[in-house]
Design a protein that fits this description.
The protein is of the alpha+beta class. It folds into two domains: 40 residues, no CATH class; 75 residues, 2-Layer Sandwich (Alpha-Beta Plaits), CATH 3.30.70. The protein is built from five helices and four strands; from the N terminus they run αααβαββαβ. It has a four-stranded antiparallel beta sheet, with helices on one face. The longest helix has 26 residues.
Length: 149
């Protein structure tokens, strides 16, 4: 009787290597095409000849400046609150595909764990509220501006 390969994980190593190889080949193939699309001023920052000709002695000394104090309170937009991680992760995936960078805050309460999906970080409540109005109009979702400590 011929031996059978376990269908669950038998070829996972080979398929992983194949995926990495395909990703590498695509990256090597596409990177020159992407570079052709970039404006010249962006490409000039990565000119190796210019980088090599700049010596440390030619650079001007860095002036010491005071660091601005970090604001004590920041504001974020709370998009939704869920009692299960799967729902929160689903919303995070949706927001990621729309160009936002959400995070999930896990909070333990009396009734169990809740998952808060939030986006952004603003120094003032006014900035956060302004963005909240834009977000609500564009995404047709209600949000709450919350203070993050």
């Amino acid at each position: 009787m011929a031996s059978r390969r376990n269908k669950k994980g038998g070829g996972s190593f080979i398929s992983s290597i194949l995926k990495i190889l395909i990703g590498f080949v695509l990256g090597v193939y596409l990177s020159p095409k992407v570079a052709d699309l970039l404006p010249e001023e962006v490409l000039s920052r990565f000119d190796i000849k210019k980088m090599q000709s700049t010596s440390i002695e030619k650079r001007s000394p860095v002036k010491e400046t005071k660091r601005a104090e970090a604001p004590s309170n920041l504001y974020s937009l709370e998009v939704a609150v869920f009692s299960d991680m799967q729902s929160a992760a689903g919303l995070v995936d949706t927001l990621n595909t729309r160009g936002y960078f959400p995070d999930i805050q896990t909070v333990k309460g009396r009734d169990g764990v809740i998952y808060k999906v939030r986006i952004g970080s603003w120094a003032s409540k006014e900035e956060a509220m302004s963005y909240a109005r834009t977000f609500e109009t564009k995404e047709e979702m209600k949000v709450t501006v919350v203070e993050v400590k």
